[in-house]
Amino acid sequence: MQRGRPLLGRCVSSWKPVRMASSRVARQAPHANKVALVTASTDGIGFAIARRLAQDGAHVVVSSRKQQNVDRAVATLQGEGLSVTGTVCHVGKAQDREQLVATAVKLHGGIDILICNAGINPFFGNIIDATEEIWDKLLDTNVKATALMTKAVVPEMEKRGGGSVVIISSITAYIPIHGLGPYAVTKTALLGLTKNLAMDLAPRNIRVNCLAPGVIKTELSRVLWADKANDESLKESLLIKRLGKPEDCAGVVSFLCSEDASYITAETVTASGGLLACLQVPGRCLPGQRLASNSLSVSSIH
């Protein structure tokens, strides 16, 4: 028995580097030569997604409503040696959506990946108090523009034999948060939009999936975690005892766009540190649901 141990040790030690080397080869640049559009991608989750797709080999076109934000994001990512360009795009404007698509086609010859990350929340309060104007703004930007942005890229994806779309929703699609009712309704609508787009686009070899982030530590969510007591309370609501990082979302999105996910469509992945599982326990709730209305930013949840 003792004589067999050195032999076993040699087998294990010799196998491990081979396995690791073969894994590196298999995982190298999963998006090499792919072209990706990412809306609202100059900060936070969108920026992390753009960076990860570029790190994984894609040519990425970032966008924002403000030119200075585009310039800053492009300079940062190009400074990291990544293939990134950008253009101004307000997804609610047809001309801007067309310009975003045209930019990608002109620079890189087509489009393989679309990440719909843009969303707004101009209202905080009782859902009954939301005006028609508020509803129009929310639905136009968060839902209609997402559908129309997808529609704009489909012809270009078809030319390349297919593609992948990932829509960014929110944990509020599952969990009612006081004051964020109209916003949450639009994020819930994106779950249905994902399934219907996936059904209609499957014959064109275009997959459509969705990501619903939980509380992600960004500047927009600072009001939730800046206070130490509330930060600790939030963490106690999670199975994984930390708040999410934008990079936690970026890795999931890159996977959903990759060949490793080629049999996945019409699905929503929740990246929330196990929050939904915790909420199934009677009496448990998200600390944000207990915050006073004057302390919660209208854009603090993705």
Explain what you see:
Strand 1 (35-38), helix 2 and strand 2 form a beta-alpha-beta unit. The longest helix is centred in the middle third of the chain and has 28 residues, at 132-159. Mean pLDDT is 87; it is low at 1-26 and 290-301. The protein is α/β, with parallel strands linked by helices and 302 residues long. The chain is built from ten helices and seven strands. Helix 2 (44-55) packs across helix 9 (246-257), helix 4 packs parallel to helix 5 (132-159) and helix 5 (132-159) runs parallel beside helix 6 (181-201). 42% of the residues are buried. A seven-stranded parallel sheet has the order 3-2-1-4-5-6-7, with helices on both faces.
Fold blueprint:
Elements: H1 4-27, E1 35-38, H2 44-55, E2 59-64, H3 67-79, E3 84-88, H4 94-108, E4 113-116, H5 132-159, E5 163-168, H6 181-201, E6 206-213, H7 222-225, H8 228-236, H9 246-257, E7 268-271, H10 275-279
Parallel strand pairs: 1-2, 1-4, 2-3, 4-5, 5-6, 6-7
Quick take:
This protein is of the alpha/beta class. It has helices at 4-27, 44-55, 67-79, 94-108, 132-159, 181-201, 222-225, 228-236, 246-257, 275-279, and strands at residues 35-38, 59-64, 84-88, 113-116, 163-168, 206-213, 268-271.
